[in-house]
Design goal:
34% of the residues lie in helices and 18% in strands. It is an alpha+beta fold.
Length: 257
């Protein structure tokens, strides 16, 4: 890995508008780690940062930008949302280490820095509450219709076919969030849903890293485009899906006219 990656990472951290990031689906490592142990690799990776560790036994599965006044950096968090540590300088040193300049790379490095197995997703001794994603999907429909009622709009009819579309779409989105509303084959999620519309029209909302249906809906309502979909008076039916991948929840709402 060349020094340019470290430079790119510094720019990515301080100038990107991303507030919250979650581990990607892939491992995110590059290069050959045979020459060093993971712990020493991680020490090199963080040699130009200020690292604070508050827990040495809980695996980090999430990385978020710190929002405290006057502090620039990123925090590492457990599946339950507890802060496990943080870095407060951006210029990580990737040269000579197997860590990619990605969020997954930072998570791998932080876990290895604390000598934790990369595949360990739950903390030793930490209770992990199973997520009922099917129930979350239903709650998302109920909450959406409540918002529409409060706005004086008709409720959307739940439609199993649209929920199947939403499930396809949320799985695609979880594999690569950069695709947005595009599908791997170059078509759009709206095109997939529109086949169930007598008018040939559809809409779609996607989200990730929201821990409850209410938080997912709140985030959409703070975005003009997503809010217009939810409160569109011309929409007639809805399908939803929620899945869990690598400790993060991914959400999809699919609508038709």
């Amino acid at each position: 890995m060349k020094r340019v990656f470290a430079i790119a990472l510094a720019a990515m951290i301080w100038f990107s508008g991303c507030v919250s990031m979650t581990a990607a689906a892939n491992d995110g490592r590059t290069g050959d780690s045979d020459s060093q142990t993971p712990a020493s690799d991680a020490q090199v990776f963080f040699s130009r940062t200020n690292v604070t560790v508050s827990s040495w036994t809980v695996s980090a599965v999430q990385c978020k930008k710190l929002t405290e006044p006057g502090i620039r950096g990123y925090g590492f968090y457990s599946r339950a949302g507890s802060e496990l540590g943080r870095i407060t300088r951006s210029n990580v040193h990737g040269a000579g280490t197997p860590y990619a300049n990605t969020v997954q790379g930072w998570l791998d490095a932080f876990n290895d820095y604390r000598a934790l197995p990369r595949e360990k997703k739950a903390a030793a001794g930490e209770a992990v509450i199973p997520v009922d994603t099917a129930q979350f999907a239903q709650e998302l429909i109920d909450l959406t219709n409540r918002l529409r009622r409060e706005a004086g709009l008709s409720e959307l009819q739940p439609m199993e076919e649209l929920s199947q579309v939403a499930l396809i779409r949320v799985k695609e989105y979880a594999q690569d969030t950069t695709l947005g509303h595009m599908r791997p084959d170059g078509t759009t999620g709206m095109e997939l849903a529109a086949q169930y519309s007598s008018r040939g029209g559809a809409a779609e909302n996607l989200s990730w890293n929201r821990t409850t249906p209410q938080k997912a809906l709140d985030a959409w309502m703070e975005s003009e485009g997503h809010r217009k979909n939810i409160l569109n008076p011309d929409l007639v039916a809805i399908g939803t899906a929620c899945i869990e991948k690598d400790g993060a929840l991914y959400w999809c709402q699919t609508f038709i006219y």
